[in-house]
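Researcher: Re-running this chain for the archive, since the previous output was lost when a drive failed. Same request as before.
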Amino acid sequence: MLRLRQIAVVAPALPPVEADLCALLQAPVCHRDPGVEKYGLVNCLWALGGTFLEALAPVQPGTTAGRYLARRGGPTGYMLILDCDDMTALRLRLSMLNVRIVEDLAVTIAGQSAEALHLHPRDTGGCLLSIDHHGPDAGLMGSYAWAGPDWQRACRADLAITGAVLACAEPAATVSRWATLLARPWADIPGGHRIGLDHGSIDFLPVADGRGEGLSAIRVAGLAAAAHVCGLDILPGEG
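Model: Regenerated structure tokens:
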């Protein structure tokens, strides 16, 4: 099982992005994670079905997120998080492929367990990628430690993130690399390529602006109209 579970965006300051996303999604913030303080960040999350949108902002100099902001020239899509049910097989595959892991997390928060592997961006391309496992309830509306113990209370159940769009310098090479490390086939779509997941999909399209590679858009089922927030196109449905 492999699901699209979370998208993160990053901006120089959190309050303006938080206000824009609360207005767009018509949903309250479900959680603020104190765990991101160790990275020099503040954050907030929205629960959309069993998927999550996170906004981040650096609060000290020299952060990885701050350097990414500078490289992308301003607010931008930042990270894509997938949810996996077999971390042992994943670790073995990543080791066989010589994919570097820049952070290996295992935590228990308020009775919820989480494992997360942050992959080296030079070994993936496209954008920052984390592959996680959450328990004890592995259902889409079940456990998700990063969003707190009661995120369901603030969940907008009629929305869900169903896709991510990566702008790539070499879409064919990047989709092939991701397909190998995720052990999923890819297919051609108009203008690019797509990997289908058990929930959601990831599209790989050519860079269409001067910002270089990065997470450029997401699709949100149930959204009434397209919007542009924090450097990210937010598209309704399949978009």
